[in-house]
Amino acid sequence: MVETKQTAAGLGHNGGPSMEPGLVWRTHAWRSAQKKLMPNTIPKLVLQMRLQRAAELGMDYKTYAKVRQTSGQDVLGLLFSSNALRLFGSPQLPAPEAAVLERIVRAGRLALVHRPQDPARVSEANPALDKVAQAPFFTEGWGQIRDRVQGIMRQRGLPGASVVVIGAAPLEQEWSTAGRAAAYLCASEYFSGQAGR
Known about the structure:
Helix 2 crosses helix 3 (61-71). The protein is of the alpha/beta class and 197 residues long. 41% of the residues lie in helices and 12% in strands. The model has no long low-confidence stretch (mean pLDDT 88). Strands 3-2-1-4-5 form a five-stranded parallel beta sheet. Strand 4 (163-167), helix 7 (173-178) and strand 5 form a beta-alpha-beta unit.
């Protein structure tokens, strides 16, 4: 009679292959089983819902999926700079940008405007914007930038991790970090796929 030696996995053992002869085959079999348990695709219904949500936000799916994966939650707000919205002279949004903002569904449409634009005038001229405030000045310190960016989010009741900052100038990229936002997108990237622009 041949005795077989049985070893019990100890506390903290991850259930992986043992180190006895046949290691290569057991490792292969174990990894194959793990892959079968963790599919690489998401269910079709979830994919359809996310495709629809990306369209509601005016984003392509790849960008939306990347933002959602990074932040771990849905996008509930878009924070535009006046540069991103091409508000250079008149407080009125150019027609292509206004059309894009009007198509955004179930997300706050926020804007931080640089001088000489006046937030009250920009807000009055553009009903597509839910909230407008003064953009941080380039001479302000980090704490003041943080307060301005987080301030407009708090006024709309939005956590930073659910807001995407959309800018068009190098200093505006810092707003994402200061506001603890989900992501930063260049205006050219956000608006590139939009019809009429």
